[in-house]
Amino acid sequence: MDTDTQRLLHTFSALADLGQEIADTGDFEEMLRNSFHLLLGSLAIRRGGVTEYDREGHQLRLVAARGLGVGTSETFNIAAHHARDLASLGSAITLADATKEAERFLEDHKSELASIEIDLLLPLVVRERLIGIVLLGEKASGEKFTEEDFETLKVLSRHIGVGIHSHRLLEEVEHKAIENQKLYDGLRKIYKETVHAFAAAIDIKDRYTQGHSVRVGKYSEIIAREMGWSDDEVEGITIAGYLHDIGKLIVDLSVINSPERFSAKESKEMSRHPSAGYEILARINHPYAEIPLMARYHHERIDGNGYPDGLKGDQIPPGAKIVTLADSFDAMTTDRPYRNKLPLEDVLEDFRANTGTQFDPVVVCAFCRAFLKEIEGSKERRLLNLLNRNYDNVESVSPLLNQLLVDFDGGSLAATAH
Ligand SMILES: [Fe+2]
Fold this sequence. Notes:
Strand order of the largest sheet: 3-2-1-6-5-4
Bound molecules: fe (ii) ion
Radius of gyration: 37 Å
Oligomer: single chain
CATH superfamily of the largest domain: Hypothetical protein af1432
């Protein structure tokens, strides 16, 4: 094998090793160091360094080095026009015989580079931009760099340049992703707060049911969590709860605030609110797609006798079934213009009587389990806190809740609730 072929093979193997280094997504600094050592090794150069160009700081920063001696400066200032010169030049620069463009840069740095015995500069250029410069001392043999050496260095340094460039791009993308996440979280928070404020506005219109929408949101959240919904889904149903009665905003105020039970005509007016709510909500781009449907179907019944569409069983979205129960529970546990709140025992009796016709047994059981968990000492007392304002001795309904679980879940869930 002639020496040219040997050298070529050597370059190829260095290149293969370099490719491996760059493909490795591990420690970037280590990748850079190893790649640089491979480059030095391929031409038996003892001394050198890799600098990375900081475009904003107008500096070349040493990111890998070998044999440069203690006290070598970590950064070199570089004017923007010098960086442009070097980027357009692209090829290796020997200190001894530099081109005119390189000369402008070298004027400022020659003595600095000579003091650390640097003979050769390899600008790292990616997409016509300076990424950094590889600084190299002479070959161990003292021989001059040949054209072939320059070719080898060009190929190897190109890999280092692309490696640095890709790494920085990745960092930038990661940084942007974090920024975006922060922005998104911020927006989400604002969205939730806005909806919460909106819910309060809906309730103000209906002066007999102050706080109803917010409570329905909270009850829905508790039930959905008990049913094992994901955090996103739980957040969605909380918002659906807040907004379920938004259609009341366009129902005649005198109907809403009527102190009497509704007449047939008033009932008809009032029964428009789920579809009206849907019409309002469907125009908004919610992070949770089902919100408009949950509002539309919160007065449906699983036996098909509800409104507006008379859907049955599985035709009703699960979220709407949860909001239905939360809505009824809050309606029965708060004073209304035409009646006082019901005793909790009566509320649960209503649940028992209407489960399977109005309410979905799965939802009723989830509600009972969540209720029992709080009574039996779970740290969270959200449901109890909501109720304690209106009732004393809420805990006394525990046997009724257990009985509901026995009736509608064969007792299996009642056992796990303990
Ligand atoms: Fe409603």
